[in-house]
Amino acid sequence: MVNKVQQRQLMGAYIRQQRRIADLSMRQMSAMVGISNPYLSQIERGLRAPSEAVAAGIATALGVGVDELYEQDSGDPGSGVPGPTEAGGPGPEAADPEPADPQAADVLAAIHEAQELTPEQRTSLAEIYRSFVRSNRSD
User: Fold this and answer.
1) When comparing pLDDT for 67 and 29, which is higher?
2) Could you tell me the CA-to-CA distances from 113 to 65, 91, 118, 122 in Å, in that order?
3) How many CB atoms lie within 10 A of CB 9?
4) One-letter-per-residue 3-state SS of the chain
5) pLDDT band at 80, cuts 50/70/90?
6) Other C-beta atoms within 10 Å of 33: how many?
7) Residue 12 in contact with residue 46, Cβ under 8 Å?
8) Choice between 91 and 31, residue whose per-residue pLDDT is larger
9) For 50, what's the count of Cα atoms within 13 Å in the CB-facing half-sphere?
10) 99-103 — which CB contacts under 8 Å span 24+ positions?
11) In angstroms, how far is CA 57 from the centroid of its own chain?
12) Which of 81, 87, 89, 86 is nearest to 62 (CA)?
């Protein structure tokens, strides 16, 4: 079970990761959401939890669903999104070590082997891929 501090840290790490993927500065993102730069920084560092309205604004700015933000703080291992670790998060295969679909396994393996990407980029790309696959399964 994840405690409240860990929940805030997981959500904050996910928000920061998605903001960086979107290539948004903290200033740009805080302006889009309508909050102060320091408040966004506190959310990303897990020092404060966003209100529902702020979480909705963050999700909109990042182009993700609000549910995705809260999946991070649930500690749900099925969410497919790694929590922060000392090494910068697990590799792309961590959330779905043996995908049922061989094609998905090939895609994840290719992402994992793409040495022209940083480890963070490989992890993010694999997470995005998994998110699309989950979304298509639920349609």
Assistant:
1) 29
2) 29, 10, 11, 9
3) 20
4) CCCHHHHHHHHHHHHHHHHHHCCCCHHHHHHHHCCCHHHHHHHHCCCCCCCHHHHHHHHHHHCCCHHHHHHHHHCCHHHCCCCCCCCCCCCCCCCCCCCCCHHHHHHHHHHHHCCCCCHHHHHHHHHHHHHHHHHHHHC
5) very low
6) 22
7) yes
8) 31
9) 29
10) 101/133
11) 16
12) 81
Taking the whole predicted model, whether its pTM rises above 0.70 is answered as no
- The single residue listed with the structure tokens 């980029």 is 121
Tokens standing for 24? 């948004």
pLDDT in tens, 82-114: 333 323 333 333 333 335 566 777 787 788 788
Length of the chain: 139
Distances (CA, A) of 23 to 69, 72, 91: 18, 20, 21
